[in-house]
Amino acid sequence: MRYMTKPNQAACSTILHMFYMQAIRSVIEYTASCIFTASNTSIDVLEKIQNKALRLILGAPAWTMLCNMQLEANHPSLHNRIQTTNFSHIQKFIRRENSQLHLKISQAQHQDPTVFTKKTWVNHIANGIKELGAQQLFNNFEMDPPNDTYRVPPPWQEKELTTTIHRLSHSKDKLKSEGSARTRDQSTTDKESRSITQTTQSTTEEQQRHLCVTT
């Protein structure tokens, strides 16, 4: 991004913001469910990278406060963003499947951290929900009801698999020969084009030499 801000590149703030969102922020969003268990030191390293990117996008001087840059660029801190993304993934999963995950996270929220000192994935999720202040919203999560016409298939029923098979226009050998013929024709055309170009250049050079001698 620093290279894109050079005068010969002339990338505006909109292009820099788009590049950051697609090339950098998207990676963090995709791995949010894994990197949220990282230590605070590791998260601070990512925070510093985002702060440098925000300064480049906004063209802000070094003394600009981080909160002002985050508000101007509409980018919260990575720590907050990662927790929000995980919370969104959790609620989608719980609404789709009535699993034991909701019960495990609820139990982790009421555990005493001085007794349960082991840092598990569920504990990290529960702590993130507490920091967001979304305990009541999480407790109200329920599985979405199915459609009225949906019927649970019996366990002995085989699952249907639909496949579509298209016939080839010719046999594989004929298709290979046709592809090889097209490749040969293209190669021959390229050689002829290069030959004509070289002949034209040679003729032009001879004419120029002849004019020089005549002069």
TrEMBL record:
Residues 169-215 are annotated as: Disordered. Residues 195-205 have a biased composition (Low complexity). Residues 170-194 have a biased composition (Basic and acidic residues). This is Uncharacterized protein.
